[in-house]
Design a protein that fits this description.
54% helix, phosphoprotein, six-stranded parallel sheet
């Protein structure tokens, strides 16, 4: 049996995924989790083979949780299952140690196939998203530029961003200017929106 942990903050989606997977004779859903902060403890308690994680969840996002699981339970493989078909998220998911990436409008049989492949030690990525990721390339932002845009998206002044990241105001301005140029935006708010839309934050 393939032991699967499901994590999604939308109860209807979580229930539907569990119902679909329980129809498979070789899959056992061992946990249904609604927040990112609960996943690691539940995984340690239930020892799943596969953790199927949403990206945006309360507490900790699925990409962070994937990295947590990779460190704490390396035998548990992760698949990101999300509404966000963004190449940037795919790249970040693979960097976090995920073995698969599917979008929520994936046909049930393809999701089941992804689980079986990942359980067998293979990787599975939604084919259309993989093609888009190859065409689009990696994020143009440095890690620090992404950090600055992430904080800038919450509002606040350059001084607020500098204080939050423990940088000088001049350094923050330089990172913002560079990020605005790389995203071809007109303002830092627009740069943050574009970076988020591409999954770079």
């Amino acid at each position: 049996m393939i032991r699967v942990l499901l994590a999604d903050d939308q109860a209807l989606v979580l229930g539907a995924l569990a119902s679909v997977l329980r129809l498979e004779p070789d899959i056992d859903v061992v946990a249904e989790i609604g927040t990112g902060t609960e996943v690691l403890a539940a995984a340690q308690r239930t020892a799943p083979d596969i953790a199927l994680l949403d990206v945006q969840m309360p507490g900790r996002d699925g990409l962070t949780v994937a990295a947590d699981l990779q460190r704490a339970l390396p035998a548990c493989r992760t698949i990101i299952c999300t509404t966000f078909s963004r190449p940037g998220y795919l790249s970040r998911a693979m960097s976090a140690g995920a073995s698969g990436y599917v979008v929520k409008d994936t046909p049930p049989e393809q999701l089941v196939d992804a689980i079986r492949r990942v359980h067998a030690g293979l990787r599975f990525v939604d084919p259309a998203l993989a093609a888009e990721a190859l065409a689009g390339g990696a994020s143009p932002l440095t890690g620090r530029e992404a950090d600055v845009l992430r904080v800038a998206a919450e509002g606040g002044t350059v001084a607020d961003i500098a204080r939050a990241l423990r940088l000088s105001q001049g350094t923050v301005r330089n990172h913002l200017s560079s990020a605005i140029g790389k995203t071809q935006a007109r303002t830092r708010a627009e740069a943050a929106r574009l970076a988020e839309a591409n999954g770079w934050l």
